[in-house]
Here is the input.
Amino acid sequence: MSNKILVFVEQRNGEIKKSSLEAVKAGSLFAEQLGISSEAVVIGNEITNLNSISNYGISNITHLKSADLALYSTTGYAQTLSEYAKEVNADLLFFANSSMAKDLAPHIAIQLDTSLAMDCVELNIQNGEIIATRPIYGGKALAEVKLTKSTKIFTIRPNTFPLGEGNGTNAEVKIKEILNVNLATKVTELKQNNDKIDVAEASIIVSGGRGLQAADNFAMLEELAKIMNGAVGASRAAVDAGWRPHGDQVGQTGKTVSPNLYIAVGISGAIQHLAGMRSSKYIVAINKDSEAPIFAAADYGIAGDAFEIVPKLIEELKK
Amino acid sequence: MKIVVCVSHVPDSAAKINIGADEKNIDQNGVSFILNPYDEFALEEALKIKDSIGADVVLVSVGGDEVKETIRKGLAMGADSGILLKTNAFRDSISTAKLIAEEIKLQEANLVFLGKQSIDGDNGIVGQLVAEILGFNSVSVAVSFNLNGNKIVAEREIEGGREVVETSLPAVITAQKGLNDPRYASLKGIMAAKKKVIDEKEVTVSEIGVELIRLKKPAQKQAGKILGKDSSAIPELVRLLKEEAKVI
Here is the structure.
C-alpha cells in the first residue's frame, strides 16, 4: 500500500513547465484513486507562476528554495529532492519525462533505493498497484511493467495527461529554504531559445523530410507551425543532410513524440521514423508519392506536391 | 589514464520488431544487431582523448555470447580491450548499472562514457545510475565535452537549447548525437581487433526492481483517407482537423 505521491515540478528561468503541470494532474488523479495524499514540489529560486500548479488538483505545494538552485544542478537537485521525499515519507514520485527528469530521476532512484519506469505513456491501477506502459525499441513495441520496490518513480511523457481547463484554485505555497547545496555538478549557463517550442513537448508538430529538398524550404514549415503554435520537427534524412539540428529529429534515434497533431511533409515514413511518431493522436501526411508508407500511418493524407500544398494550407489556416 | 566505454548490442533501427510468443521477449528471427548508435559517439570521445593525451580505452558490455560481435566493432574503431559481463538473465537498468559499476571499480577508471540511451530499452538512465552508484559526477546527453586536468566543461541538450555544465573527475558522461563525428573502423583496425582480448566474466544479476508483465505491439491505426492530390483538398483537410479530430 502506498503512502504519498510527490510530484516534481520543473522550472527553467523561474517558469513552471507545462509538462510538469501534466504530471501534477496525473499525480492528483492517481492519489485520489489510490486514496492517498499528494504534494507538488518545486526546486529553484525565484519562481513566477507557482500558483499555476494548484489549478490541476494538488493544493499542497512546497517550494525548496535557494539561490544555488536557480539553475539546475544534478548533485544539488538530487540531494534536495531525495531528502525532501524522505522527510515527507513519499513513496510514489512522479516526474514529467523531460531532459531534466531523465538526468535527475536515476540519481534519486539510487539514493532512495527505488524502482523506476521512464517515459510512461499510460498508467493504470490494478489491485492497488500502478501498472505502467512504456514504449521500447523507439516505439516499435510497448512494455507493461510493474515496479516492485516499495518506493517507485514514474516519469510521464508529455501530452499523456492533457491539461484541459484548470480549476483556478489558489493554494498556499510552503517555502523551505535549502542550505548547503552540493554543487559538484552544476549548470553555469543556459543557452536557450525561448521562442522555440521543443518537439518533445509540443502538442502540434510539423515535420519535414527529404522531400523538402533544402534547408531554406523549412521556412514554410516554420510559418505553418507558428500559426498553430506548434514546433518544427525533421526526419533523420533532413538532419543528416544538415538542414535541421539534431534536437529537432523525430524517430528512433531522435525524439519519440506523442503530440495531438503531427503533420509529416515530404517524409516517406521509414520504419525508424514511424516508430517515433506513431503514437501521435492525429497524423497528416503530405507527400508526392501516394505509395509512401507514411500514408498507412496517417489519418489524413494529401498525395501531392508539398511546395504547392503547404503555402495554400497556411493561407487557409490564416482565414 | 584509463577510460571505460560501455557499449550495447541492439537491434538495428531499421529492423521490424515482433513480439515473441511468450510476450516477454522480442522475436529475434531476421533481426540484425548493431553497436548502439549513441555508443559510437561515446567511444569516439574516448578515442579523441586517447589520441590527444593518451589513454587506455576499455569496452564493457553486458549480455550473452552474441555481444562479443559488437565489442569487436568497438575494438575495430580503436578501443584497446573489451570485457563481456556474461549473463543471459533478465535485467532492468539498475541491475545492469550495478554490474557495470562493479567492473569500473575493478578497472580503477575515473572517466566513463556511454551512449545517452540504448535504442532497445530506451530508458536512457544507465549512465546516471552508474555515476550515482560509484559516487562519480555525471553529465548526461552531452553534445560537447572538454577535459582540462580534472575539470570538465560540457554542454547537454535540453528542450529548445543547451545547458553548460561544470564538474570534475571522476565522472560518467553520456553521449548524444552531435558530440563528435565517430570514425569508421579502418581495415587495419578490423584486422587488429581480431587480436585484441575480450575478457569474459560470468556475472550474476542482482535483485530486479521491475517486473515485466508483457510486451505488446502499439495499436495499429486504420489506414487513413487520402483526401486528394493537390491543394483543392485543403478545405476538407482543415474541416476534418477542426470538426472530426478537433486538434486545431
